[in-house]
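Researcher: We're teaching a course module on how sequence relates to structure. For the next exercise, students receive a sequence and then see the predicted structure as tokens, so they can try to spot secondary structure elements on their own. Here is the exercise chain.
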Amino acid sequence: MKHKADMKRDLKIGTIGENKVHPFLETKFKQSFMNNNEDDKFANFDFRNETADLWIEHKERYRYKSNLNTYYFDVVKLNRFKKLKEENPNIRGFIVWTFQDCRKIWEVDLDQFHENEEAKWYIEHQYKDFGNGYKQHRDVVNVFADETLKFEDFEFN
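Model: And here is the predicted structure for the students to work with:
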């Protein structure tokens, strides 16, 4: 069972990761971002710009390298983006994963399949310990790695 000290450490690592990625986001997107976690750190994206038409979620994966087939994030983030998109069809959302060896980025795409019916991402139900010391049910979005870009290769326009 995970101890409270371990959970506090993991939350601290996540916060440190957000603080580290923040200036990279502002440089890459050429605008300022505010940390959006004050309202609901589990449902909102971590960052948004001043006009709230650009939302970014950061996932710190410090234990892993980027050589995975898929990268995941909680389905609650996708659902939040869908709601934001209904309110403002012009908004854009991004997920940034920081791994040991690089950062990867994916622009949230609500179209799950390519025209040839090949999946871009899929939702998976999981029942496991997500770092809280006990098993829990959770739906995650798995984005295929080849749908993402290396952060350094990404050009915002």
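Model: If you want an answer key for the exercise: Helices lie at 4-29, 75-87. DSSP finds two helices and nine strands in the chain.
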